[in-house]
Amino acid sequence: MNEPASSPPQQAAASSPGGSWKAWPWGWLPSVAGLFLLSVGSVFPTIADPEVVTLPFGLLGCYTLSVIIHEFAHFFVGRWAKLQFWRLRIGYGTIVYDKELPAFRLVLGEIPFAGDVREFHFLENIGRLRWRRFLMVAAGPAGNAAVAVVCALIAFRGDLSELKLTSFPLLMFWVNAWLVLISLVPYRTKVDGVRTPNDGLVLIHLLLNIKSKTSKDPAASGQDAARLSHPSWRWLIRNTRPEPFLQKYRDYPNKPALPAEARGEILDRFATSVLLYGATEFLPEADRYSAELLKAKPDKWTVKGTRGCVLVDKGETEAGMAMLQEVMRQDPSEVDRAICACFLAPGEVKKNNPGAALEWLRAARKLDPNCGALPRIEPLVKCHKSDG
Predict the structure, then answer these.
(1) pLDDT at residue 220, rounded to an integer
(2) Between helices 283-296 and 260-277, what is the axis angle to 10°?
(3) Counting Cβ atoms within 10 Å, is residue 295 exposed (0-12), middle (13-18) or buried (19+)?
(4) Same domain, 106 and 178
């Protein structure tokens, strides 16, 4: 029951966090304070303005606001170009806010001075999306450039001798001009422990039709990096159609020279996708693949969970539920246990225990509110309850 990857095989992600309020003061609070001080100075210019305080906080506030403009420019132009995004993130470090919306996941990090957007696509489709992606990537620096021009026209339109260092238009001009520069000068930066090309380098690669390469940092670790590597199952089920996704996935295991570990991850993800989509036409393959995996890795809980879910789905209720209950007791992954709890619910329904089925659904929601199995399983259980 590994988390889905847009370009298999890749590392599986962990469960989704709620956020940490204790991290807010490190980045967001000074930025909000800076914007507040700039606003007060603009509305009440006669008030004494201690620039030694307002200037540094104002710069932080303007920088955060400009980063938000940059990332939303990427996002909205990408949506206009019909690219599919699964994540919009502002800030790095400890997660202070993490919300799975119907169309994308919004993540705020404690240090709000950078961000990124993440697309969902298979590697084979990148070439066809080349110019759409070029527009999306160029939109970030273009948005900052537009803000810099407008703010320059406002800041320098009057008597320059009266221009204050803490003028909001002046600070926004300098900050956005700086962001345009560091966005377009090509270099690599670290994102989620991976050295990744910045906007300027990606634009060059897209112009020359060169595949952008990333490199893992062996020192990179932490749950947040793993957690944000891939879209959640819930996002996947909501935003992709099962047939093309499963057809893509089913081709990977048969590729020559595919490492055994990578093949195992793909088979597990394929079987899990079949279960969560409810794509019964693929169930015989999911049955065969999950049996193969269990034989190869009988002690791996995620594999045992997938096999148990398949057995419940194909009608072998007792054997499947016994396996899932063992996973519920032993597996440390909340994502895995939430999916297992979901599939224990229809098992209880088949045994005519609707109350126990609802308890398993409540347990799944508590373990993972964004559990990808809930959209499929909840209606089945509720329908049975109303029929009863």
Answers:
(1) 44
(2) 140
(3) exposed
(4) yes
For the segment 160-188, the average pLDDT, to the nearest whole number, is 90
| pLDDT class of 14 with cuts at 50, 70, 90 | very low
- How far apart, in Å, are the Cα atoms of 340 and each of 112, 314, 346? 37, 15, 11
The range of the structural domain enclosing residue 379 comes to: 232-387
Distances (CA, A) of 24 to 81, 93, 97, 152: 34, 11, 9, 31
Q: Quick one: which of 273, 262, 188, 185 has its CA closest to 10?
A: 262
pLDDT in tens, 108-143: 988 899 999 999 876 556 678 899 999 999 999 999
Task: Enumerate residues 6+ apart whose C-beta is below 8 A from 349.
Answer: 357, 380, 381, 384
Query: What does the pLDDT read at residue 2?
Result: 60
Among 67-81, 200-214, 221-235, name the one with the lowest average pLDDT. 221-235
Confidence (pLDDT) at 8? 38
CA dihedral 56, 57, 60, 64 (to 10 degrees): -160
Mean pLDDT, residues 16-23 taken together: 53
Alpha carbon distance 181, 175 (integer Å): 10
Q: Is residue 182 scored above 90 in pLDDT? A: yes
The Cβ-side half-sphere exposure at 173, using a 13 Å CA radius, reads 14
Q: How many helices, marked H, and strands, marked E, lie in the chain?
A: 15, 5
One-letter amino acid of 112: P
Q: List 109's β-bridge partners, or say none.
A: 95
Label residues 326-354 b or e (16+ Cβ within 10 Å = b). Answer: ebbeebebbbbbbbbbbbbbbbbbbeeeb
Both tokens of residue 205? 């690669």
Q: Is 286 helix (H, G, I), strand (E, B) or coil?
A: helix
Q: What's residue 190's pLDDT?
A: 79
Q: Choose the final residue of a domain: 225, 241, 263.
A: 225
Q: Higher model confidence: residue 16 or residue 342?
A: 342
261 domain-assigned = yes
pLDDT of residue 13: 33
CB 303 within 8 A of CB 293: yes
What CATH number is attached to the domain comprising 318? 1.25.40.10
Is 72:95 a contact under the CB 8 Å cutoff?
A: no
- Is 14 contained in some domain? no
Residue 11 maps to a domain:
no
DSSP string for 26-71: HHHHHHHHHHHHHHHHHH-TTS---HHHHHHHHHHHHHHHHHHHHH
